[in-house]
Amino acid sequence: MTRLTTKDISPIRDRLADYDRELTQKTGLTMLGLACHAMGKDLDAVIQRAGSFSIQVIPNTSGQGIISDFCTTVSAILTYLGFKSRVASESDVAGFAHAFTSNADAVMTADDLTFAGFNLHTRKVTDNSAVTGWVFASALDRMVHGGIAGKKVLIAGCGPVGEAAARQVIDIRGIPGVYDLDADKSGALAARLSNDLGSEVITVDTDPAAALGSFSCVIDATPASEWIPDSLLGPIAAMTAPGVPPGLSETGRDIMEPRLIHDKLELGVAAMAVDLIP
Ligand code: 2YG
Question: Cα(161) to centroid of ligand 1, in Å?
Fold first, then answer.
C-alpha cells in the first residue's frame, strides 16, 4: 500500500478537466464514464443522482496522520464529478458523528492501511484498492484496440489492487499473467483466481521485464519505479498503472504516453463514489 505525499496530490485538483480530456481521448469515456463502465452503473442515472448525493470526506489522524491536501483533493475530485462533497470540519470520531447528524449520504476516510467509503443509508462499503484495480483494468480494456478479451494481460503486483485488476481482466475474458517480486504472492493469487473463477492464469515467475515480450497489455500495480526498461516498451499495446509511482522511466512515460493511463487518486475515487450510489 503506497502512502501518497502532498507532492503527489497537490497538482491533481487543477488538472481534473485536462485528465478528463485525456481519458476521453484514450478510452472514449470520462473519469465518471469509466467509473460507471467499470462498476456496471448507468452513467446518466449516476449523473442524475450525484447532484443530490452528499459525501463528506473525514480526515483521519491515526497512525502516520494527516497528509495535507489528501481530503481536500478527494473532495475536489468528487465535486468535479458532480457530487455534493465537502471535507468534514472535524476529524476522526467527531467527523463521523457530524456526518450522521448532518445527514450526509456517505462518508469517505483513510487511515494508513485502508481508504474506504460508506453509504450511511444502505451500509454499502467501498474499498479504494479493490475498485482501483477494477477501474484500471476496465480502462485498459477501453484503451486497447479491440479490447482485452482473448488477450494476455500482465498484472505486475499481486496485492489488493493487482488482485482486483486480475479479477476484472478475467471478467472481461482476458488472460491474466500475474507477477510479484514475492513469488509466493503471485502463486497464491494464481491459485485463488483459478479456484474461484476456473480461469486460465499464467504465473510469471521470471523477471517481469523479460515476460513483457509475450504480453501486449500491462497493468502496473506495483510501487516499484522504473522496472520496465525503455527498450522493451515497443510491443506493449497499452498500459494502465494504478501503482504509485508508475514503473516507467521519464523517457518510458514519453514513449508510452499515447497508450498509457496513470493517476494517483482520481479514477479510484470516481469508482468509489459510483460504487456508493445505490
Ligand atoms: O486523513 C488523512 O489525511 C490521512 N489519514 C490519509 C492517509 C492516506 C494513506 N493512503 C494512501 O496514501 C493511499 N493508499 C491512498 C490511495 C492511493 C490511490 N490508490
Answer: 14
